[in-house]
């Protein structure tokens, strides 16, 4: 005859078995939903996928627990496709906090951070992908974007270091070449700048970065030479110094004309006050008061 203790043990055993069965059923249900979400995502049914992943997440988080990282990744990528950026960020960062790592996750995070204009976090996501997954499927576009972010964030040294990885594909891409021109201009690599500007103009005659480089280059050369030689002549009004001034002016005026032509082209593309200011200065040097006044007014 069973004792009271034996009955208790049997009841406890049945309860445990029941709980195990429930957990197994819940796990199976969660796995099935996860598979359904993955299928919907691959078929481009992003709303269905997101709703499916949400069911799993809500069920787990209602019990104070976290869903598995791939579920958050699926939800994050589905939200990203639906342009629900805040949700995408929340889910993708949840996966990251769980210690999950994949090239897809970092590529998606980089896209999210770019959309919300968080440059520092975008760079971190891109750098992590670049470092951890050099053979990743999206490594080419990731490296290209990483270079662009280095230009945007004025990390000139990092941009120079990364350039060899995109140099080949950049030869036919005026935007990438323009980025490299900006880097070299800030590092005062004049020889490299001249070569790059020439290459860019051949690819895209109206490229703003290259046109600005030439316009400013010729203006600074002409202005510096004009000021220095005029000052020298005023300090020493000799025939020798006057002849030296005349010789310098033979270089000054052509340089100013080149600068003027570039700034006129830029001003036609976009009438910026900065361009008008330069043109006002150039026409002042040419002693063309009418045009100088015209552009000086537009520079105000």
List the total number of helices: 14
Q: Uncertain regions: pLDDT < 50 for 5+ in a row? A: 14-28
Radius of gyration from the alpha-carbon trace, in angstroms: 33 Å
Strand content is under 5%
Note the main sheet.
none
Q: Strand tally, please?
A: 0
The share of residues in helices is over 70%
| Terminal CA distance | 105 Å
Average the pLDDT over all residues and give the rounded result. 90
Q: Write down the secondary-structure element order.
A: HHHHHHHHHHHHHH
CATH architecture level-2 label of the largest domain: Alpha Horseshoe
Shape summary = elongated
**Helices and strands: which structural class?**
mainly alpha
Tell me the number of structural domains. 3
CATH class wording of the largest domain: Mainly Alpha
CATH topology of the largest domain: Serine Threonine Protein Phosphatase 5, Tetratricopeptide repeat
């Amino acid at each position: 005859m069973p004792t009271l203790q034996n009955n208790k043990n049997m009841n406890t055993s049945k309860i445990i078995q029941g709980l195990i069965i429930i957990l197994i059923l819940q796990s199976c249900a969660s796995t099935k939903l996860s598979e359904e979400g993955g299928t919907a995502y691959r078929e481009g049914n992003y709303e269905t996928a997101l709703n499916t992943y949400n069911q799993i997440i809500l069920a787990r988080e209602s019990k104070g627990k976290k869903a598995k990282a791939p579920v958050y990744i699926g939800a994050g990528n589905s939200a990203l496709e639906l342009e629900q950026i805040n949700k995408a960020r929340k889910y993708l960062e949840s996966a990251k906090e769980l210690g999950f790592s994949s090239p897809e996750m970092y590529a998606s995070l980089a896209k999210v951070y770019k959309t919300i204009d968080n440059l520092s976090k975008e760079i971190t996501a891109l750098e992590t992908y670049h470092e951890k997954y050099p053979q990743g499927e999206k490594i080419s576009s990731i490296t290209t974007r990483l270079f662009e972010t280095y230009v945007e964030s004025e990390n000139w040294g990092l941009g120079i270091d990364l350039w060899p990885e995109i140099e080949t594909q950049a030869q036919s891409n005026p935007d990438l070449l323009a980025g490299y021109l900006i880097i070299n201009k800030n590092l005062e690599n004049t020889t490299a700048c001249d070569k790059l500007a020439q290459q860019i103009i051949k690819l895209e005659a109206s490229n703003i970065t290259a046109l600005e480089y030439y316009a400013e280059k010729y203006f600074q050369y002409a202005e510096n030479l004009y000021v220095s030689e005029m000052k020298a002549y005023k300090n020493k009004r000799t025939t020798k110094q006057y002849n030296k001034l005349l010789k310098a002016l033979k270089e000054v005026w052509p340089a100013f004309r080149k600068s003027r032509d570039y700034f006129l082209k830029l001003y036609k593309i976009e009438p910026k006050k900065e361009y008008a200011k330069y043109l006002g200065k150039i026409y002042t040097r040419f002693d063309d008061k009418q045009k100088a006044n015209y552009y000086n007014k537009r520079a105000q």
